[in-house]
Amino acid sequence: MKLSKLFTKTVREAPADETAKNAQLLIRGGFVFKNSAGVYSFLPLGWKVAQKIINIVREEMNAIDGQEIFMPALVEKKYMEPTGRWELDVGFYVDSSLSKASGKDRSLASGKDNFVLGWSHEEVLTSIAAKYISSYKDLPFSAYQIQTKFRHEARAKSGLLRGREFMMKDLYSFHASEDDLDKYYEKAAKAYHKVFERCGLKAIYTLATGGVFTDKFTHEFQVVSDIGEDTIYVCDKCEYSENKEIAKLKDGDKCPKCDGNISEKKSIEIGNIFNNGTKYSEALGLNFTDEKGDKHPVVMGAYGIGISRLMATIVEIHNDEKGILWPENVAPCKVHLVSLGQNKEADKIYDDLQKSGTDVLYDDRDDKTAGEKFADADLIGCPVRIVVSKKTLEKDSVELKLRNEKDFKLIKLTEISQVV
């Protein structure tokens, strides 16, 4: 990708209406565009990051036998009414009876006649599954989607950490028994840890409440951060953790699992898993027949990861005073190639790296100073910066600098492919 062809541009000053570091840096770097409060567009660089996160999530969900599907964002009332979630003040409702042809004033829409923009899909997939599951032989299975969710967030703030429209991976599992669900639940938890580790984050497995999703205890994956909206109590030895909303622990207590000390910390939730039991299957008639011919409701679990929230958390954790420091697995490109002055050698390096399968962001602009190019490289935050100039070429070399290090070194042109 050549910067001269990129239609977006970096911005020097942070937007006045954004206080969160993730929003400031992502907007300044040309990764996202803020359309409305809690609503963002992903621009070319931002979409490359999102796709890399999505690919990591997809690989780990496939590894635990998740089957990828895609469900509608428009959810009809008939699905959510049986579970009592239709009236919850969570979604954006659509009154399709107030069409333009009806001649009615749209401003008078009741807002709850027919559909809601999907904020969760337990009911939809449960209804689909009811068409295909009849016997214990059809279980277990799990299915997931990566899709846009919509939530009526009154406090749309903190950039991509709290949005009204956001990307999410939601996986649902279906089982013949609680025991089988428990086994899959643990498998999913391990897969989640792999996802977050690959994204450069350390997540703490935290006991939490179920909110509007289940009446059972659930687990969250929390990343310690001073800007986090959650408060957790975590052991400094075994990392047993509880969310403050349910915790009987307090700062300074002894861990109930070991002899470690409990500390209070602010944190960002980046994923959660739920034991839904038979809440949705009973409400929507999802049953199976066992070996004896007896009928039982299917036991279900749900597992969510916010893709855009995960991206924002990565930025909140990996940044400095100059910009973002993307972990290599999720960086828009591995290499930021900077050409100082027009030279064919930089073009050749760009072509060679691309042919070898290396993602390269090539600053080939001829209307920017060296200082401007370096500042953009730091702001955008690719892991490796390579500078090609008349001075370096006189030594048959390029200047190589890692984004998370201060010093650079000269490497020979013939060694680039071995180093990158």
List the helices and strands and how they pair.
Elements: H1 21-28, E1 32-36, E2 39-42, H2 44-63, E3 66-68, E4 74-76, H3 77-80, E5 93-94, E6 115-117, H4 122-129, E7 141-150, E8 165-175, H5 178-198, E9 204-208, E10 218-224, E11 230-235, E12 241-243, E13 262-277, H6 279-284, E14 287-289, E15 295-297, E16 299-306, H7 307-317, E17 319-320, E18 323-324, E19 335-339, H8 344-355, E20 360-363, H9 370-380, E21 384-388, H10 390-393, E22 397-402, E23 408-412, H11 416-419
Parallel strand pairs: 3-7, 9-12, 19-20, 19-21
Antiparallel strand pairs: 1-2, 4-6, 5-6, 7-8, 8-16, 9-10, 10-13, 11-12, 11-13, 13-16, 14-15, 17-18, 21-22, 22-23
Helix pairs in contact: 1-7, 2-5, 2-7
